[in-house]
């Protein structure tokens, strides 16, 4: 039975190649027919897809890390990005550009996201909230004390309060 199916799939491919030299539309229909002939038997047998889905690994929430701290500059790395807080210029930047000034920051927020059905661990996100619809995310950690420490450090450097 399988060899008969492969014969028809091969015939459809040959038809598509020959017809494609005359008309791209007919050649495309031939390729579509070959595809559905080959896939149809897999669907009937319930064998699943030809290429199995690549399972993504469970998201690993890394802790926050203070990269460097001097008198005028603080560099903090999160799971999403690294932030550079400069006291002299009163600016928050990442590695590419200036993100905001201290006066635009309303507060620093710690957000708890519980475990979901995908098996992801619960996490604690740290945001610099700039308003109702705008915020800068530093990242996420599965450790609540790590998120609290980095939020407290950001609060000390920017002079803004921490909310959860």
What does this structure look like?
This protein is an alpha+beta fold and 164 residues long. It contains three helices and nine strands, in the order H-H-E-E-E-E-E-E-E-E-H-E. The strands form two sheets. A five-stranded antiparallel beta sheet has the order 1-2-3-4-5, covered by helices on one side. Strands 8-7-6-9 form a four-stranded mixed beta sheet, with helices on one face. The model has no long low-confidence stretch (mean pLDDT 79).
Quick rundown:
By secondary structure, the protein is of the alpha+beta class. 34% of the residues lie in helices and 27% in strands.
Query: For the CA atoms, what is the radius of gyration?
Result: 28 Å
How does the helix and strand content classify structurally? alpha+beta
Strand order in the largest sheet: 1-2-3-4-5
**What is the average per-residue confidence, as pLDDT, rounded to a whole number?**
79
Instruction: Compute the separation of the termini in Å.
Output: 63 Å
Tally of separate helices: 3
Number of strands: 9
Largest sheet: 5 strands, antiparallel
Shape: elongated
Helical residues, percent:
25-40%
SSE arrangement, N to C: HHEEEEEEEEHE
Low-confidence stretches: none
Beta-strand proportion: 25-35%
């Amino acid at each position: 039975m399988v060899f008969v199916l492969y014969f028809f799939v091969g015939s459809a491919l040959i038809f598509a190649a020959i017809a494609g030299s005359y008309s791209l539309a007919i050649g495309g229909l031939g390729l579509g027919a070959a595809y559905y002939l080959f896939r149809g038997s897999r669907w009937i047998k319930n064998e699943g897809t030809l290429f199995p889905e690549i399972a993504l690994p469970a998201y690993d929430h890394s802790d926050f890390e203070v990269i460097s701290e001097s008198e005028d500059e603080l560099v903090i790395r999160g799971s999403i990005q690294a932030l550079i807080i400069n006291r002299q210029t009163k600016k928050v930047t990442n590695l590419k550009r200036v993100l905001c000034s201290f006066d635009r920051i309303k507060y620093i927020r710690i957000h708890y996201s519980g475990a979901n059905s995908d098996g992801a661990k619960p996490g604690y996100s740290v945001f610099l909230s700039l308003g109702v619809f705008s915020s800068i995310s530093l990242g996420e950690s599965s450790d609540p004390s790590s998120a609290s420490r980095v939020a407290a450090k950001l609060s000390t450097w920017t002079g803004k309060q921490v909310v959860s």
